[in-house]
Amino acid sequence: MNATPEGDRARIAFMGRRNAGKSSLLNAIAGQPVSIVSHVPGTTTDPVKKAMELLPLGPVVLVDTAGLDDDQADVGSLRTQRARLELRSADLVLIVTDPATGAGAFEHELMEQLRKAGTAFFLVLNKCDEAPMSADALAALSEAIKAPVFAVSSQTGAGVPELKRAISEIKLDEPASQRIIGDMLVRGDIVVLVVPVDSAAPKGRLILPQQQTIRDILDSGCIAVVAQVSELARTLASLGAPPRMVVTDSQAFAEVRAIVPMNVELTSFSILFARYKGDYDVLKAGVDALDKLRDGDRVLIVEGCTHRRQCDDIGTVKIPKWLKAYTRKDLALEFASGAGWPEDLSPYALIIHCGGCMLPRREIKRRILDAQRAGVPIANYGLLIAKLRGVFDSVVS
Hints:
Elements (H helix, E strand, L loop, with lengths): L9 E7 L5 H9 L17 E7 L3 E7 L10 H15 L2 E6 L7 H13 L2 E6 L9 H11 L3 E3 L8 H9 L21 E5 L13 H12 L3 E5 L4 H7 L6 E4 L4 H7 L5 E4 H9 L2 H7 L11 E6 L10 H14 L4 E6 L10 E6 L7 H14 L3 E3 H8 L3 H4 L2
Parallel strand pairs: 1-3, 1-4, 4-5, 5-6, 7-8, 7-9, 9-10, 11-12, 11-13, 13-14
Antiparallel strand pairs: 2-3
């Protein structure tokens, strides 16, 4: 459970009006005081997250959010905006209300929004110790809204075990068993991973996509061999037989392609994540937009994580340099990171997105869908860099 990155966990978001008992319900499910509980409306401001294990579902993240009805000027708007961002990446939303309020117009509007997004949700009537509801009334409400309804009490614990069981048994849209690379390997295969150690590499560790790929190789009963670009030729020669595949950091594509024999499949960590978390075909097709760019076109370059930019940063330095050399156009480049994602994508001629290792798969899919709805091509770092570095046809099948 501790080894599962947040981006690979199922996300359960607690949403609803202020003082509906979202924080106390999260604490009851987590079995510990994660969120601050108070009768003062608006106590929860930024989303509060708790990682835990819910078997048989597996590792999850519980996300407590601010009340969506926060009407305080400016600050309230920012709180609800942050809360609504969680709707994009949630696998399941618990709409928390109480028997006195029930499912009013506010809750029905939220339910309709979730239905349109294809997001599963439960209606949870909290504080049932104060206003109990009969089984018949709960069944009638469930039938009316066409969704599961639970009556619980965060104070007494009534109904909480049943709710936890229902959460743990929910079927996600995408199976947690989807692999990064293992489905392309046969037990005993050797995979060489090229990991540059430069100023952008974190000191004393590997970045998350590299760690996850190595683990998936090992889980497949295969052998992972790790080397830097400078040691790659010697590493390949020492194997005695060609490896099944070479996986490289995208920024080293040109150098690695010159070393790896053409009969050995070559890909990158970012390309592997294009198929693991995104829509590979859409992201591959987005690369075609490179040859259609014109002077003045706006291009958005997006990274899912936030980190201190180095002098040779891949997103803000190297990709812009390669874009200029390839297109020979005067492009207007814009950058976003973390949760930053423009509501209006229509001004852009192309979106270039990182592999998304730190983002939930549902959020990556939403971003791709946003781009498609806006009619804007979207490409993945690895696929685009392969094109910019002249190796696209030999690394993409």
